[in-house]
Amino acid sequence: MALLSIEMIRDIQGVADKYAQRERERVASANAAAAAAVERERRQSDQRRADGRPGNHA
Q1: Stated pTM of the model
Q2: Could you tell me the residue range of the domain that residue 28 belongs to?
Q3: What is residue 4's predicted lDDT score, i.e. its pLDDT?
């Protein structure tokens, strides 16, 4: 049975930490983009309603 050295374990943990940070950043970016899209659609819908135009605001 091969044992990993402390240095190897730390290296592996470092790679895992970097991957986890990139994933958190990716998810945060996707969430921000989705929130912006929802807000943009809400504003457009509000404007259509104010203008008396049909839209998805039944």
Answers
A1: 0.65
A2: 22-47
A3: 85
